[in-house]
């Protein structure tokens, strides 16, 4: 039952149904033909055997069961079908045995008149081959009908059995197709053409039925295999058609050549015989001509007739005629006088002349010409003769006829054997000699298949199909017709020149086609062998492809299984939250991390939709998650989402999702990364950054204010502090100038002290301003040639007089990048210092040098001056720090501080070495970059 | 006004001490005859453009040189300089900034506005006298102005 209720292959079932209808119709039409006596329906061609009524009934039954099997059947209807099929098998098996044994039951006729025989086979009875095919068909049907569950083998057997029937049907069809049914011509009943057609349809339908069952079990409805199979079947069918038509053409070609050969043979034989007969006739007339108007012969006859006792003439005549007869095998030679009295007869036996004899003789006497009397029958001895009559004419006495000489010819001696003779062994070959006898054709020689035909048997000219009639009517060459037995024959027909005779050399068509039957069998066998070979090859290829396909499929499945295993492991043990949802967001599967974070168990989650847990973090339209994230896009990447856990706390996650295929259904693989901690840390950092930024802003503001104040301050210092100094100095001077008479030397000295202190104060202000300018100004970088800069500064800060006191050595210095004004200030301060502190010494040497170290250019200035106590060298670069007394050396104590500040601002360092009274070396470094 | 009374030097200086110092320095060099002293920027502009207290003046009677301090009450020296140098009538008057400021900013700004000289007042009076003498000699005697 399940087979029927299973999914059915609609096109195949339609084909089976159609096949059932066709088979049923074939049976029905044949039966109808029998009943209404319209024989075309039963046999299609008069020459062939009709389908037996029993066969027709079986076809009808098959049609019915094939038509109804594909309906959804109730079990009782199924039972009926099975019984019908079983009945067919039983009945046809019985009929097979009976028919093989030559026992034909009249019940098969269903009371219809069918008593004919076609080539020895009785009409109206089932052929054993037909019965056999029906039996096989029944088995095939039952097997495929009963194919259920895993009984694939049944369908396979059904297919093979149907295939056998199909092959038999094909052979029979080929036989009919080639125009020469194989099985005709014995008492074996051949299947009719309509039966053959019926089997072709029946077997094809059964094949489809079986293959439909097979295809239902072979689970691979895989398109690739299916397409491959279709291609193979198509190519196979094309090959079948090719092979069959190739065979057909080969056979037809052979047939044509064979027939041509036969025709040639017939023509040659006919020609040969005609030339022989003509030759023979010429000789006979030649013999006659020797005696006709022969002076010697006439003289002898004249003297013999005038004096019968003239022994010499008589003897000479007798010897002459005897020699002629023996030499040319005339059956009888007569010499009559002109009153028809026999004067010399040879052989010398008495015989009555036939009625035509005297007629022909008198004709010869009257016409005075040689007369060749055609075949005639001698009524006295009932034999057939031909006769030549030669009038004996006396030329000297006014052509008087003296008598008549006759040569009688017995055709059985030479002529009939000549005609009868055939040059190759043949069962039906025959040569006929005929002549026209008013409206009939008269057969002149005895026939192979009819006794006493010579001169006795004639056929009317109206029977135009006869080859002999065709000959008499003037056809020459090869004609196809029937012979006196009404057998179809092939004949070469000719008129024999100089005679009323016509020659017919003929051969039964059946004999001609005898070797063709063998050839046909051979051809069909060859075709079937080729088809079987091709089928096997295709089957092999199909199998190979199939097994290759399954192997690949198996391997792919293996790989898939492995990858699924891997995926499963990766899925479940992943620390990242993973879930598979359907397209609407409903959970199908979640991993441990997912349930751990959300607080729901895996089972609880399976009922939920992810929208219940997850909402977009950034967007206020939280509801949109499902539509924007899940439904529209194939791949969702790293959306920030809020995850609501079971205890209603909120976590932040990164949501990625991708469309995947789970067992043929669309689904989504979702990955959630918990970024709550990171997010919090980020927030913290952001807040701190904000605070920091605010603080920086505040500080910058304060700094700006401070800077402005400082600027105002330094401006005031620069401008306003100097004015009082100038006033002090100026008015001190006025005192000296205007009141010099009132001031003693001590007063003047004190005023000078005031004035010199104002100078110091002015210097101090200038230095401090320089220092503050260095601190606040921006650096203006440019390439600096240090050697020439140092040289220029040295020349700048010293007078010629001073320089003459010094031994200065300026080594080549590495170039640098820096603010040239500030760097000049550095050199200025350092060189001024060196000059200042060395001047009091006896030995006055200054060396300036420098070299490139790793990332720094280091410069130094070494002097032989008073030096300093290295204990205090850390104080050297401090503001207002002095290691010498003011009265010994001028100075504000700011110069080295300026140097240090400038160098530091460039990213370099300053340091110094020195010994008291042993000189000092000041170093500074500037970055090379 | 005769030629003798024509103002040759306009001294713009708010500090009376400095005025005294400057005048004394000028006097020492016999240059103090036709000096007009104004104590702030407003007076300076009134004088130069012959308005306010100085509206009896003719604007064409321009001084030979203006000695201008930068730090002035009301209108500072830079503003005064700007006004002088941006008016076609006064543009050609030589202006010498005489100030205590050594600020680069002041120097740049003055030169940008078209000052003719920039002199830092030395604290040392002797040097101050020398400077004033040099200025006077240069602008009043050595330098040639186009005819009025």
Describe this structure in words.
The complex is a heterodimer of chains A (929) and B (148). Chain A has 929 residues and is α+β, with helices and mostly antiparallel strands. The longest helix of chain A is centred in the N-terminal third of the chain and has 69 residues, at 223-291. The radius of gyration of chain A is 72 Å and the shape is elongated. Chain B contains five helices and five strands, in the order E-H-E-H-E-H-E-H-E-H. In chain B, strands 2-1-3-4-5 form a five-stranded parallel sheet, with helices on both faces. In chain B, strand 1, helix 1 (16-28) and strand 2 form a beta-alpha-beta unit. In chain B, helix 1 packs across helix 5 (125-142) and helix 3 packs parallel to helix 4. The longest helix of chain B is centred in the last third of the chain and has 18 residues, at 125-142. The radius of gyration of chain B is 14 Å and the shape is globular. Chains A and B meet through helix 20 and helix 21 of A and helix 1 and helix 5 of B.
Could you give the topology of this structure?
The complex is a heterodimer of chains A (929) and B (148).
Chain A: H1 2-5, H2 10-36, H3 40-43, H4 53-69, H5 75-100, E1 117-118, E2 121-122, H6 128-145, H7 152-177, H8 193-217, H9 223-291, H10 295-306, H11 311-328, E3 332-337, E4 342-346, H12 355-367, E5 371-378, E6 383-394, E7 400-409, H13 415-420, E8 430-437, E9 440-443, E10 458-460, H14 467-472, E11 477-482, E12 488-495, E13 501-508, H15 509-512, H16 514-572, E14 577-582, E15 587-590, H17 592-598, H18 602-606, E16 614-616, H19 625-632, E17 635-644, E18 650-662, E19 665-674, H20 676-738, H21 745-776, E20 781-784, H22 786-797, H23 800-804, E21 807-810, E22 816-819, H24 820-838, E23 845-852, E24 856-863, H25 895-905, E25 910-914, E26 920-927
Parallel strand pairs in A: 21-23
Antiparallel strand pairs in A: 1-2, 3-4, 3-7, 5-6, 6-7, 8-9, 8-13, 9-10, 11-12, 12-13, 14-15, 14-19, 16-17, 17-18, 18-19, 20-22, 23-24, 24-26, 25-26
Helix pairs in contact in A: 2-4, 2-8, 4-5, 4-6, 4-8, 5-6, 6-7, 6-8, 7-8, 9-16, 10-11, 20-21, 21-25, 22-24, 24-25
Chain B: E1 9-12, H1 16-28, E2 35-38, H2 41-48, E3 65-68, H3 77-85, E4 95-99, H4 104-113, E5 117-120, H5 125-142
Helix pairs in contact in B: 1-5, 2-3, 3-4
């Amino acid at each position: 039952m399940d087979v029927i209720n299973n999914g059915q292959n609609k096109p195949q079932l339609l084909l089976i149904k159609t096949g059932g209808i066709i088979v049923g119709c074939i049976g029905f039409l044949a039966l109808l033909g029998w009943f209404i006596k319209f024989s075309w329906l039963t046999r299609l061609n008069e020459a062939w055997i009709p389908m037996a009524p029993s066969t027709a009934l079986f076809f009808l039954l098959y049609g019915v069961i094939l038509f109804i099997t594909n309906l959804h059947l109730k079990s009782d209807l199924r039972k009926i079908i099975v019984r019908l099929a079983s009945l067919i098998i039983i009945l046809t098996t019985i009929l097979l045995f009976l028919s093989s044994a030559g026992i034909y039951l009249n019940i098969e006729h269903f009371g219809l008149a069918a008593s004919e025989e076609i080539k020895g086979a009785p009409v109206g009875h089932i052929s054993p081959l037909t019965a056999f095919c029906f039996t096989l068909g029944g088995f095939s049907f039952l097997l495929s009908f009963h194919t259920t569950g895993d009984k694939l083998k049944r369908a396979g057997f059904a297919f093979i059995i149907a295939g056998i029937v199909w092959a038999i049907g094909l052979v029979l069809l080929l036989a009919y197709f080639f125009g020469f049914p194989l099985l005709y011509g014995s008492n074996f009943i051949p299947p009719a053409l309509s039966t053959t057609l019926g089997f072709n349809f029946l077997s094809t339908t059964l094949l489809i039925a079986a293959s439909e069952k097979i295809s239902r079990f072979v689970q691979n409805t895989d398109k690739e295999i299916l397409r491959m199979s279709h291609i193979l079947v198509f190519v196979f069918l094309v090959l079948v058609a090719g092979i069959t038509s190739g065979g057909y053409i080969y056979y037809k070609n052979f047939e044509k050549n064979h027939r041509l050969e036969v025709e040639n043979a017939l023509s040659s034989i006919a020609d040969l015989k005609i030339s022989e007969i003509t030759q023979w006739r010429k000789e006979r007339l030649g013999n006659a001509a020797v005696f006709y108007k022969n002076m010697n012969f006439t003289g002898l006859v004249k003297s013999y007739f005038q004096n019968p006792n003239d022994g010499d003439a008589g003897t000479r005549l007798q010897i002459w005629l005897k020699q002629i007869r023996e030499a040319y095998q005339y059956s009888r030679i007569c010499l009559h006088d002109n009153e028809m009295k026999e004067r010399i007869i040879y052989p010398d036996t008495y015989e009555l002349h036939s009625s035509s004899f005297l007629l022909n003789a008198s004709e010869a006497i009257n016409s005075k010409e040689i007369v060749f009397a055609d075949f005639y029958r001698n009524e006295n001895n009932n034999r057939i003769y031909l006769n030549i009559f030669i009038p004996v004419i006396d030329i000297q006495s006014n052509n008087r006829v003296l008598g008549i000489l006759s040569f009688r010819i017995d055709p059985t001696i030479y002529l009939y054997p000549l005609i009868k003779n055939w040059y190759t062994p043949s069962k039906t070959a025959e040569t006929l000699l005929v002549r026209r006898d008013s409206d009939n054709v008269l057969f002149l020689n005895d026939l192979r298949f009819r006794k006493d035909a010579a001169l006795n048997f004639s056929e009317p000219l109206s029977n135009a199909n006869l080859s002999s009639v065709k000959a008499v009517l003037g056809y020459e060459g090869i004609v196809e017709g029937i012979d006196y037995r009404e057998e179809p024959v092939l004949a070469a027909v000719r008129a024999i020149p100089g005679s009323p005779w016509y020659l017919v050399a003929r051969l039964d068509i059946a004999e001609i086609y005898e070797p063709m039957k063998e050839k046909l069998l051979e051809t069909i066998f060859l075709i079937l062998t080729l088809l079987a070979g091709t089928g096997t090859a295709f089957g092999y290829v199909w199998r190979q492809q199939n097994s290759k396909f399954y192997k690949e499929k198996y391997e792919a499945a293996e790989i898939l299984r492995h990858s699924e295993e891997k995926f499963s492991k990766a899925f479940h043990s992943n620390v990242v939250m993973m879930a598979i949802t359907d397209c609407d967001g409903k959970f199908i599967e979640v991993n441990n991390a997912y349930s751990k974070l959300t607080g729901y168990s895996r089972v609880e989650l399976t009922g939920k939709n992810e929208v219940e847990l997850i909402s977009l973090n950034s967007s206020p339209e939280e509801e949109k998650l499902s539509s924007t994230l899940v439904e529209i896009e194939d791949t969702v990447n790293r959306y920030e989402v809020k995850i609501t856990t079971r205890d209603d706390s909120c976590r932040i996650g990164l949501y990625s999702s991708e469309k995947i295929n789970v067992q043929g259904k669309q689904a989504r693989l979702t990955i959630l990364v918990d970024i709550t901690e990171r997010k919090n840390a980020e927030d913290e950092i952001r807040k701190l950054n904000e605070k920091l930024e605010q603080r920086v802003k505040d500080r910058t503001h304060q700094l700006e204010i401070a800077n402005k104040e400082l600027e105002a301050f330094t401006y005031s210092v620069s401008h306003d502090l100097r004015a009082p100094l100038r006033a002090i100095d100026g008015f001190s001077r006025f005192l000296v100038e205007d009141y010099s008479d009132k001031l003693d030397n001590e007063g003047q000295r004190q005023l000078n002290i005031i004035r010199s202190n104002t100078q110091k104060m002015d210097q101090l202000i200038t230095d401090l301003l320089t220092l503050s300018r260095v601190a606040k100004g921006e650096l203006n970088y440019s390439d600096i040639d240090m050697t020439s800069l140092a040289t220029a500064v040295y020349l700048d800060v010293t007078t010629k007089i001073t320089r003459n006191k010094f031994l200065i050595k300026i080594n080549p210095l590495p170039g640098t990048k820096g603010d040239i004004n500030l760097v000049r200030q550095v050199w200025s301060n350092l060189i001024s210092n060196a000059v200042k502190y060395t001047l009091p010494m006896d030995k006055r040497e200054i060396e300036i040098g420098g070299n490139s170290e790793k990332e720094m250019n280091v410069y130094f200035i070494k002097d032989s001056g008073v030096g300093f106590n290295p204990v205090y060298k850390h104080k050297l670069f401090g503001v207002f720090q002095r290691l010498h007394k003011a009265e010994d050396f001028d100075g504000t104590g700011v110069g080295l501080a300026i140097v240090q500040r400038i160098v530091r601002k460039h990213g370099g360092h300053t340091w110094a070495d020195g010994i008291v009274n042993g000189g000092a070396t000041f170093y500074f470094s500037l970055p090379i970059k | 006004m005769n030629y003798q009374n024509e103002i040759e030097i306009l001294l713009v200086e708010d500090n009376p001490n400095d005025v005294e110092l400057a005048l004394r320095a000028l006097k020492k060099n016999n240059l103090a005859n036709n000096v007009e002293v104004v104590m702030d920027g407003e007076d300076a502009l009134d004088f130069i453009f012959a308005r306010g207290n100085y509206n009896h003046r003719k604007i064409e009677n321009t001084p030979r040189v203006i000695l201008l301090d930068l730090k002035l009450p009301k209108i500072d020296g830079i503003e005064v300089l700007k006004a002088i140098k941006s008016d076609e009538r006064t543009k050609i008057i030589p202006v010498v900034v005489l100030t205590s400021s050594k600020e680069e900013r002041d120097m740049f700004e003055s030169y940008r506005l078209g000052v003719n000289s920039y002199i830092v007042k030395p604290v040392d009076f002797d040097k101050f006298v020398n400077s004033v003498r040099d200025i006077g000699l240069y602008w009043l005697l050595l330098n040639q102005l186009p005819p009025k």
